[in-house]
């Protein structure tokens, strides 16, 4: 077999491998015959022909030097795990071996019907408000939203991150509002104003004046923002005023600090 194997080096590749296959069968080396046949150019398998575990494929079967060299040249090995090798010919790559590709990550910005997920950066009439996460057609995003810097694409992971960050910020704002509420309701604010006979004030006391006085009792920025506003003012009899305070006396002022959180402050106007 050794002498014939050496002579096969002068044959065409496919013919030499087939000759080695026949020799291996005749000599009783069945596993060698199977390997040689799988490596031949006649096999066009859709997947690697033979999977061998090299942990059990030891040196018990020694090949002649010429035969072993030819086998190594025509049987590329690709190690895919500890002790496991794939031996075979890939139809598309022939003798170049098997290429293992990583699984492509799914694009979470694309939904059903080909629509894409975007976050609005500003109000878009008929579409949504700033901060809204919506699904739109790709053409609408490219031709309108992207050109006007009205939206950006956003993935599910980014949405989840923003939701978590918003939840943290909302909790901090709620805790702060509760602290401010407790302090406001423990206060008794008094404002001195000029008044005429009968206690009628020269100029009314409106919401802005009251808020300015309250802000002096807190750190800067604590009672500022569009969400901080006076929702109502009641006189000592519990009657709700429709405008500014115009008489000296005691009043109750309700201030909205946050959605669902408000404080009632005792407020007096004196001369």
Word description of this protein:
32% of the residues lie in helices and 24% in strands. The chain contains seven helices and twelve strands. A hairpin with a 2-residue loop joins strand 11 and strand 12. It has 271 residues and is an alpha+beta fold. Strands 7-12-11-9 form a four-stranded mixed beta sheet. The chain has a three-stranded antiparallel beta sheet with strand order 1-3-2, with helices on one face. It has a three-stranded antiparallel beta sheet with strand order 5-4-6. Helix 2 packs antiparallel against helix 3.
Beta-strand content: 15-25%
Mean pLDDT: 75
Task: Output the radius of gyration.
Answer: 42 Å
Detail the poorly predicted runs: 41-60, 76-94
Distance between the termini: 123 Å
Strand order of the largest sheet: 7-12-11-9
Please state the structural category.
alpha+beta
Biggest β-sheet description: 4 strands, mixed
Overall outline: elongated
Order of H and E elements: HHHEHEEEEHEHEEHEEEE
Annotation field: number of helices: 7
Number of DSSP strands?
A: 12
- Helical content, roughly? 25-40%
Give a short overview.
The chain is of the alpha+beta class and 271 residues long. Helix content is 32%, strand content 24%. The chain contains seven helices and twelve strands.
């Amino acid at each position: 077999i050794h002498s014939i194997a050496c002579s096969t080096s002068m044959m065409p590749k496919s013919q030499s491998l087939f000759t080695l296959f026949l020799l291996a069968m005749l000599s009783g080396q069945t596993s060698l015959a199977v390997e040689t046949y799988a490596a031949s150019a006649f096999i066009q398998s859709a997947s690697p022909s033979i999977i061998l575990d090299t942990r059990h494929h030891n040196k018990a079967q020694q090949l002649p030097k010429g035969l072993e060299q030819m086998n190594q040249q025509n049987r590329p090995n690709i190690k895919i795990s500890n002790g496991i090798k794939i031996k075979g010919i890939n139809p598309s790559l022939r003798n170049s071996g098997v290429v293992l590709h990583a699984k492509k990550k799914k694009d979470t910005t694309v939904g059903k019907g080909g629509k894409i997920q975007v976050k609005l950066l500003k109000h878009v009439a008929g579409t949504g408000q700033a901060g809204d996460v919506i699904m739109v057609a790709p053409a609408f995003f490219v031709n309108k939203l992207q050109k006007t810097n009205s939206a950006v694409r956003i993935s599910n992971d980014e949405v989840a991150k923003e939701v978590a960050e918003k939840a943290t910020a909302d909790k901090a704002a709620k805790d702060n509002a509760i602290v401010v509420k407790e302090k406001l309701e423990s206060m008794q604010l008094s404002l001195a104003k000029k008044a005429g006979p009968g206690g009628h004030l020269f100029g009314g006391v409106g919401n802005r004046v009251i808020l300015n006085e309250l802000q002096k009792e807190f750190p800067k920025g604590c009672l500022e923002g569009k969400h901080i506003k006076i929702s109502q003012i009641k006189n000592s009899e519990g009657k709700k005023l429709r405008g500014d305070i115009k008489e000296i006396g005691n009043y109750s002022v309700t201030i909205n600090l946050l959605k669902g959180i408000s404080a009632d402050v005792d407020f007096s106007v004196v001369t």
